[in-house]
């Protein structure tokens, strides 16, 4: 504080010295005292928020001279200021006395102003100081330019408000990269609006973009602002229609042409906006009008215009084909389509004629055409033909008017036919309206005329009701016709304009017109009989001037808050005898007449509007009529109150107290309520949103009473504007507007708290609150650590300043098992308790307190920010509003409950997996069991039981031949070796477990897939060599019959291939034996328990998937050679097995095949000699899993060797005789294979 006082003292001394020097200079220059004193500075231009000292010094020499008798002391000095047109005085405590002749006035943090401070001594003004407080140059917000038809450009803008005089220099260029600029002359006379004109000398018509620069300067600084203007988009073209010419005109179209001299300048073409409006009709709506443009002319054709010979108005504007371009001034062209003869005649109806009382003339009426139906000039109506008693008469003698025609010398005992047409300059209408006028007898006039025709006017809706009595004779009455038209003055049977008519049923005796009719209306009615009609009968008014005038019966019509409309009728009185009306109205005040006014109204008036009445006030109204000789009695008084009006505005709206959620309002009632004051409607505006609230009121409230209202539910720290309107049935004008800002409040919690952990640091990020409710001074960050017992270990606080980037970083804490960390953030607002206390705050900063920060703000807090936070935490200076916490929880390891949940989840998942696996295994087992079928197919069963003659079977593989059955089964074929009689098996056992094992493993998915694949190939390819054709269930032994169904091996396809090049032609020969691998055995005729055999000795193979005993009993032997028939017969007999060794009721397993004797040598095959004593040779036992491999059978001699084994010994023989290859053996026969064979018998 001592340092500041020292600085101020030095400043005062310097100011005083400058003032003395200035005074001496002035005295030295002039030689005499120029003024009683001076001020320093005389002129100052400073920025907003600056400090300023103004001193005023007494020129003692001026008062010491003999020219004045006045005195001035330093205590007599003060300042009179004019700040923004408001006068203010500064004296006493506002001033500081420097010495015995000088005072000083100090200003701190000056606001925007234009001020003049006049130093006064008593009543004498000494010298003034001009002070302007403003800002640096501000940018222009509304710079706008408009180009006019490629000729010149006009720009304007509004100077931003600034108390300091600011200068603007405007220039432009059309090339952004050039330094040469064109400077524009601007006019500042209409300030703050500045108008700039780019004349034709500077205007660059072919440049699309103008680059403007605004150089702005004042004493506080300089600024430059660049603005781009699109010349084409801001272009306003000239009004179209230069040298306009009419090219063509028809009854429904018109074509116009005009010149466009600057079309070459247009970029992207020109858009037209065309409006065509018929007279007294709305504008026509068309999707587009046909137009055409050339290099120098434009053509527009308006087609399909609705009315011939009618007036239209064309409004045409053009603009560049750019999005933001502007429309040109309009071309307004009035035109008329070509005339055409009228399209229809006037409309007439039965009885539309009037017979005068003289019965010598007759007038007939018709409904006129509308103006748009006349189709041309010189429109009129013509009587094209008239017939009297069916004889054509001279129609030229008929007097034709615009809405009627009069026939003189009319004869009532003759009937007439009149034909009426419409006509104009182009001719008459093609059609004519026919009016039949029958003869009228005395009886018709006496018995067939409507009686007592009366008209009644309804003032409430300005309508008329015509009533009548029926004719005396209603026999043959068809209906009535009612006519009405505007009346001509003093002519009761003439119409001013067209006549209207409507038919009424015979049972009706009155007709009411629509509302809004003219006050003077002529009405008539005619009775239409079959072949008879007496014409129109008008409502007449006859009376005597001496007759008494009836008392009037006025009625109240339209009622407003300032007027009452009175209407009346003249029933029973003819307006011709009246002179006028008297109308008297009086204002009622406390039940007594007051301010009565009487007005005279003309006789043709039927209503009057009393104006300038007070709202919501009672008035009495009465009327009378008068004639030249009489006056009627006044009518009964009408007691009527004017309607409620809008009250005057509420007065002196102010606010008394403002909190962070409410404001206390006070105002005075309107001076005039003008009705029942029911409520006040307040409008409250904030953030460009206006809401309303209603305040009820009582009628008995006094005018000068002050009304109070507390408006709640406001948002904290928000700018509001409030005004009020009073309401009766209408709202008043708004009251004065008050502006205020609510106090600081509780902010909402921060949002989107994000915690990012790493081994070394943890980063906390969050977003500001959605509802700050204040300036958001700072944020509090808390990290809470809890152990396994939920006991809080640490809760350190950290502070983060309110910045756009809300982030703090901390060292990642040590993660102890079963410990939990909670990160919490909340926003804090601060409210100043006493602004005066802030001036004495110690702002010294202690950096040691920042070291306690658990989480450091990023970027780190500055010294100023940390000092502010320390001050905010001072409860004697600020009241803090803290939001709710935004939290984020982190656990170091799962708790006991979480572990139980995890174990339970694992157990449930394991149970589900085991259940699914069990279900899948059961499903697979079910599939295998479903494949087991112990019942042979019907076709195979019959084939097995019944022998079939094979003689008719040819050599083919498919279908029957001759008398054959034609059933074929595909089976696996294998050439089995021939057995001699001494090769019988030693022992056969049946019904063991191996056969059951073979049955259980007989189903295979691979076999099923192989079967399906084979079925798809049977129609296009040959079957593999492992299959052969079985016709009628029997194996074919003839190789020639198998060539159509077997695929040849590679050795068959290439006869030159030797044994060395193909050592293993049958790679699947090492598989398990199938029944089809057994060679066809011949069946001895002496055996009783044998399978059915064919004529050639072949035996049908079983299809159940196992090798039956019968097959073993009937093993085939090779046919004996021709040279040794006896030996062959002996060998054949030796191959038959004894019956006691074979069980025919069971099947033989592959494991039992080793009991068979080795095969005898095959005749006709050269090769290594087989041993003659096979009994001594030990047989190799099969493997331990129940099946016998092909290799074991070959070693035991139970089947013949594969072609690879005998390839060398039979090389020469294989060249002469085709070698029979062993089939590809990839497994064993299953029931599915046999079933598939049975189902595909039709393919063999």
**Principal-axis shape:** extended
Based on secondary structure, the structural category is mainly beta
What is the strand content?
Answer: 25-35%
Q: Please state the CA-atom Rg, rounded to the nearest Å.
A: 63 Å
Q: How can the largest sheet be summarized?
A: 6 strands, antiparallel
Helix content: 10-25%
CATH topology of one domain: Immunoglobulin-like
Distance between the termini: 125 Å
Number of helices: 14
Count of β-strands: 71
Give me the CATH architecture of one domain, please. Answer: Sandwich
The CATH class of one domain is identified as Mainly Beta
The CATH H-level superfamily of one domain is Immunoglobulins
Provide a brief overview of the structure.
Helices cover 13% and strands 34% of the residues. By secondary structure, it is mainly β.
Overview of the structural elements:
- This protein is mainly beta and 1244 residues long.
- Among the domains are: 33-134, Sandwich (Immunoglobulin-like); 144-230, Sandwich (Immunoglobulin-like); 237-336, Immunoglobulin-like (Sandwich), CATH 2.60.40.10; 554-641, Immunoglobulin-like (Sandwich); 651-742, Sandwich (Immunoglobulin-like), CATH 2.60.40.10; 750-839 and 853-892, Sandwich (Immunoglobulin-like), CATH 2.60.40.
- Helices cover 13% and strands 34% of the residues.
- It is built from 14 helices and 71 strands.
- Strands 59, 60, 61, 63, 65 and 66 form a six-stranded antiparallel beta sheet that branches. Strands 2-9-8-4-5 form a five-stranded mixed beta sheet, with no helix packed on it. Strands 14-15-11-10-18 form a five-stranded mixed beta sheet, with no helix packed on it.
- The longest helix has 36 residues, at 896-931.
- The two termini are 125 Å apart.
- 29% of the residues are buried.
- Mean pLDDT is 74; it is low at 1-9, 26-33, 946-1107, 1109-1148, 1154-1189 and 1202-1228.
């Amino acid at each position: 504080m001592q340092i500041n006082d020292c600085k101020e003292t030095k400043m005062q001394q310097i100011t005083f010295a400058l003032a003395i020097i200035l005074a001496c200079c002035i005295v030295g220059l002039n030689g005499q005292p120029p003024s009683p004193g001076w001020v320093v500075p005389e002129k100052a231009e400073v920025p907003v928020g600056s400090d300023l000292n103004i001193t005023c010094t007494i020129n003692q020499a001026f008062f010491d001279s003999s020219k004045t008798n006045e005195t001035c002391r330093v205590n007599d000095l003060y300042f009179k200021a004019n700040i923004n047109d408001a006068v203010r005085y500064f004296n006493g405590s506002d001033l500081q006395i420097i010495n015995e002749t000088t005072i000083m006035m100090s200003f701190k943090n000056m606001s925007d102003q234009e001020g003049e401070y006049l130093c006064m001594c008593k009543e004498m003004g000494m010298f003034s100081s001009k002070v302007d407080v403003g800002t640096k140059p501000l940018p222009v917000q509304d710079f706008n330019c408009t180009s006019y038809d490629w000729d010149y450009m006009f720009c304007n803008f509004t100077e931003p408000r600034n108390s300091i005089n600011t200068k603007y220099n405007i220039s432009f260029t059309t090339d952004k990269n050039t330094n040469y600029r064109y400077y524009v002359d601007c006019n500042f006379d209409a300030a703050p609006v500045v108008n700039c004109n780019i004349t034709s000398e500077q205007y660059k018509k072919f440049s699309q973009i103008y680059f403007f620069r605004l150089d702005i300067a004042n004493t506080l600084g300089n600024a430059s602002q660049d603005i781009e203007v699109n010349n084409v988009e801001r272009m306003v073209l000239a009004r179209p229609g230069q040298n306009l010419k009419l090219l063509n005109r028809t009854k429904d179209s018109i074509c116009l042409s005009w010149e466009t001299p600057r079309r070459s300048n247009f970029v992207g073409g020109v858009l037209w906006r065309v409006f065509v409006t018929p007279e007294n009709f709305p504008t026509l709506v068309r999707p587009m009008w046909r137009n055409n443009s050339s290099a120098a002319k434009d053509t527009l054709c308006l087609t399909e215009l609705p009315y011939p010979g009618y007036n239209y108005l064309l409004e045409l504007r053009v603009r560049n084909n750019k999005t933001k371009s502007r429309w040109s001034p309009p071309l307004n062209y009035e035109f008329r389509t070509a005339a055409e003869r009228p399209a229809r005649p006037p409309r007439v109806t039965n009885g539309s004629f009037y017979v005068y009382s003289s019965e010598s003339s007759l007038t007939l009426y018709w409904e006129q055409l509308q103006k748009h139906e006349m189709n041309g000039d010189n429109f009129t109506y013509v009587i094209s033909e008239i017939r009297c008693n069916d004889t054509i008469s001279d129609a030229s003698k008929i007097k034709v008017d615009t809405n009627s025609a009069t026939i003189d010398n009319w004869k009532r005992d003759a009937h007439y036919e009149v034909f009426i047409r419409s006509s104009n300059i182009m001719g008459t209408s093609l059609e004519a309206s026919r009016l039949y006028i029958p003869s009228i007898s005395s009886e018709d006039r006496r018995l067939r005329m409507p009686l007592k025709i009366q008209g009644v006017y309804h003032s409430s809706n300005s309508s008329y009701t015509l009533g009548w009595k029926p004719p005396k004779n209603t026999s043959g009455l068809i209906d009535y016709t009612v006519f009405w038209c505007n009346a001509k003055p003093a002519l009761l049977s003439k119409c001013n304009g067209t006549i209207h008519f409507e038919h009424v049923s015979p049972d009706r005796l009155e007709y009411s017109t629509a509302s809004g009719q003219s006050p003077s209306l002529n009405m008539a009615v005619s009775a239409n009989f079959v072949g008879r009609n007496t014409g129109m009968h008008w409502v007449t008014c006859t009376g005597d001037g001496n007759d008494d005038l009836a008392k009037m019966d006025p009625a109240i019509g339209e009622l407003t808050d300032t007027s009452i409309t009175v209407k009346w009728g003249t029933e029973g009185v003819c307006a011709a005898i009246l002179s006028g009306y008297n109308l008297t109205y009086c204002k009622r005040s406390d039940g007594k007449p007051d301010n009565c006014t009487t007005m005279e109204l003309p006789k043709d008036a039927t209503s009057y509007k009393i104006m300038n009445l007070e709202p919501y006030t009672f008035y009495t109204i009465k009327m009378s009529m008068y004639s030249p000789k009489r006056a009627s009695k006044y009518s009964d008084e009408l007691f009527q109150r004017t309607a409620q009006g809008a009250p005057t505005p509420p007065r002196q709206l102010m606010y008394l107290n403002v909190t962070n959620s409410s404001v206390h309002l006070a105002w005075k009632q309107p001076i005039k309520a003008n009705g029942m004051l029911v409520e006040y409607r307040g409008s409250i505006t904030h953030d460009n949103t206006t809401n309303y609230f209603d305040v009820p009121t009582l009628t008995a409230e006094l005018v000068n009473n002050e009304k109070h209202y507390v408006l709640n539910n406001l948002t904290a720290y928000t700018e509001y504007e409030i005004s009020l309107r009073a309401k009766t049935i209408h709202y008043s004008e708004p009251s004065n507007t008050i502006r205020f800002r609510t106090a600081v409040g509780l902010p909402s919690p921060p949002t989107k708290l994000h915690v990012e952990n790493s081994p070394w640091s943890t980063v906390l990020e969050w977003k500001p609150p959605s509802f700050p409710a204040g300036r958001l001074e700072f944020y509090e960050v808390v990290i809470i650590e809890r152990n396994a017992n939920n006991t809080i270990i640490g809760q350190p606080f950290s502070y983060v300043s309110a910045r756009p980037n809300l982030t703090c970083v901390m060292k990642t804490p040590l993660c102890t098992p079963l410990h939990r960390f909670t990160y919490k953030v909340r926003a804090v607002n601060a409210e100043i308790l006493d602004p005066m206390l802030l001036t004495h705050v110690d702002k010294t900063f202690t950096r040691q307190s920042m070291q306690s920060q658990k989480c450091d703000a990023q970027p780190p807090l500055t010294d100023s920010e940390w000092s502010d936070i320390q001050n905010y935490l001072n409860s004697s200076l600020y009241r803090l509003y803290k939001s709710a916490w935004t939290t984020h929880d982190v656990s170091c390891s799962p708790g006991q409950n979480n572990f139980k949940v995890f174990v339970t989840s694992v157990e449930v998942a394991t149970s589900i997996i085991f259940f699914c696996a069990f279900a899948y295994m059961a499903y697979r087992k079910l599939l295998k069991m479903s494949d087991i079928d112990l019942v042979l197919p019907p076709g195979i069963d019959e084939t097995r039981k019944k022998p079939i003659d094979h003689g008719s079977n040819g050599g083919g593989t498919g279908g029957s031949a001759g008398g054959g059955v034609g059933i074929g089964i595909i089976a696996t074929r294998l050439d089995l070796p021939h057995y001699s009689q001494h090769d019988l098996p030693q022992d056969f056992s049946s019904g063991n477990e191996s056969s059951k094992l073979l049955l259980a493993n007989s189903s295979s998915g691979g076999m099923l897939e192989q079967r399906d694949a084979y079925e798809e190939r049977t129609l296009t390819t040959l079957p593999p060599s492992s299959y052969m054709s079985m016709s009628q269930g029997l194996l074919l032994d003839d190789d020639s019959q198998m060539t159509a169904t077997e695929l040849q091996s590679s050795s068959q396809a290439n006869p030159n291939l030797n044994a060395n090049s193909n050592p293993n032609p049958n790679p699947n020969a090492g598989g398990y034996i199938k029944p089809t691998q057994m060679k066809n055995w011949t069946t001895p005729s002496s055996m009783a328990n044998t399978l059915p055999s064919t004529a050639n000795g072949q035996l049908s193979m079983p299809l159940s998937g196992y090798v039956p005993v019968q097959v073993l009993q009937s093993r085939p032997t090779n046919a004996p050679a021709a040279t040794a028939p006896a030996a062959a017969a002996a060998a054949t007999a030796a191959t038959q097995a004894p019956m006691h060794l074979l069980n025919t009721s069971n099947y033989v397993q592959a494991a039992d095949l080793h009991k068979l004797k080795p095969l005898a040598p095959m005749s006709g095959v050269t090769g290594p000699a087989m041993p003659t004593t096979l009994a001594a040779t030990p047989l190799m036992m099969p493997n331990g899993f129940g099946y016998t491999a092909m290799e074991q059978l070959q070693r035991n001699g139970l089947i013949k060797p594969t072609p690879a084994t005998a390839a060398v010994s039979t090389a020469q023989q294989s060249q002469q005789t085709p070698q029979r290859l062993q089939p590809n053996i990839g497994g064993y026969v299953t029931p599915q294979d046999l079933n598939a064979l049975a189902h595909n018998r039709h393919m063999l």
